[in-house]
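Following up on my earlier thread - several people asked me to post the actual chain instead of describing it. Fair enough. Here it is, all 131 residues.
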Amino acid sequence: MEKVTNQEQNIHTKIASVLKALLCAYVVTGALLVLLAFLMYQFNLDEGKISIGIIVIYVLANLLGGFVSGKCAKSRKFLWGLATGILYFALLLLISLAFYHSLQNAGENTLATFLLCAGGGMLGGMFSIFL
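Reply from S.P.:
Thanks for posting it. Predicted structure:
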């Protein structure tokens, strides 16, 4: 049997905490998107309100993901929250590519979504310091 060093165990723990945070963020995203779909159906919301709802969902999900990842980290909590937000965006981008097979007309929206996800995750990591 190989001995696992303390440093290797620490890395595995941090990776597991980021994956747990991503899972929490995506569960919240799914639940809030279902709620938004219900509200859209019930109140016949226009495209502008739906876009705002999606932005709010991205920020809230990444706040939670960053918070969870920051709580699991012992130091540099904001960096772990930032990493969670970036990974959330990367997975979101991969899912979009899988469904649409291209990124046409995605310039400004992609950058804005990246900044929202990364910023929300980092802010969640910062909040984990205080709560």
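Helices lie at 6-43, 47-72, 77-100, 107-130. That should answer part of your original question.
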